[in-house]
Amino acid sequence: MRAAFLLLFALLSGAPLAAQARPFVALQLPARGSVASEGPLVTTSGVLNDRALGDMLRHGFPARLHYRVELWSAGGWFDDLERTVEWDVIVRFDPLEKSYRVARIMEPDRVAPLGEFAQLADVAALLERPYQAPITPRRRGRRHYYNVVLQVETISYNDLDEVERWLRGELRPAVRGQRNPGTALGRGIRTLVVRLLGGDRQDYVARSPTFRS
Question: Longest C-alpha distance within the chain, in Å?
């Protein structure tokens, strides 16, 4: 009887933890007096926990996290999309260094290497740090809200040269037609790995509370 009670307690106690482990993207508004001058804080949690994505990273396929934050004005018959901002976070495993390299790309002309990490969990911890999106309302005295869409996908072998440049802090991509995609055998192996592991894109969406600018 005691053993059954302990088992039931463990299951019930673990249920909230399992729920908390679900991947998500979240938006947090800045302090009330700063909503007109500071953008929302974007937090990402658990999106790299997918086993297939982790396997593809370890097999040399970079992951691309594409963020799109939208600013909407609320009121009237329809809400209006006023502004958008987009950026990418690129994650790639370096098999020689046995580390993960990460870079953030802010279009159209900024790229920032975010460092090298020994474990994928370290990259996940980096993503959990709030990032302030560079977007604010231009119209004052209106009701607004933010919406964020996060797309997580693997990058094909055709784009590996560009990824290497981004991770080094170079924004300009390699000139098409002058890339070295590797041998036909290498391309075939990579394509086979993609088919075996899958390459589905995962989408995550969140919306902020409505606020007045």
Answer: 71
Residues in Cβ contact with 97 at an 8 Å cutoff, skipping those fewer than 6 apart:
116
Q: How far apart are CA 151 and CA 8, in angstroms?
A: 38
Checking phi first, is residue 145 left (phi over 0); if not, alpha (psi -120 to 50) or beta? Answer: beta
Buried-exposed string 79-118: b where 16+ CB fall within 10 A, e elsewhere? eeeeeebebbbbbbbeeeeebbbbbbbeeeeebeebeebe
- The total of other beta-carbon atoms located within 10 Å of residue 44's CB is 25
Task: Give pLDDT tens digits along the chain (213 positions).
Answer: 444 333 333 333 444 433 446 899 999 998 877 887 899 999 999 999 888 888 888 887 888 899 999 999 987 778 899 999 999 998 988 888 889 999 998 866 678 889 999 999 999 999 999 999 999 998 788 899 999 999 998 876 555 555 566 556 565 544 333 444 334 444 444 444 444 445 567 899 999 999 988
Position 199, amino acid: G
Contact in structure between 26 and 207 (CB atoms under 8 Å): no
Q: Say which residues have a Cβ less than 8 Å from residue 208's Cβ, sequence separation at least 6.
A: 27, 28, 29, 40, 145, 146, 147
Q: Kindly calculate the radius of gyration of the chain based on its CA atoms and give it in whole angstroms.
A: 21
Which residues does residue 80 pair with via DSSP β-bridges, in sequence order?
73
Look up residue 211 and give its two tokens: 């606020």
